[in-house]
Amino acid sequence: MATKPPQPPRVVDAPQFFVPPSVRELRAQAVQRLQAGLFGLAAIVLIVGLANIINDRARMAEAEAGKPAAAAAKDGAAQNDPLAEIGVVPATTPDPAAASTSTTPPRGR
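Predicted structure:
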């Protein structure tokens, strides 16, 4: 220990291309891989959760939008045809008000 004089650094004859990683470097690499994996897993869970929320909201909006149409059909009210309303195509069901105004009284002889 104290009896040995310090040795001068060893001269390397050939260049050394690969230095094996130390235990500390191996542990740091493992921790970094673990952190990246957990971050990726958390990101996937958040994306799936967000997609589930969006899907549920769309399903609820679709169910609420379908209720008035179902109630109108249940009451016997005729479904409105948008093309018939603007006059592009003739109405599929006769309108009672239009039928009474369109008939002309018979001419007297």
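Summary: Helices lie at 23-74, 82-85, 96-102.
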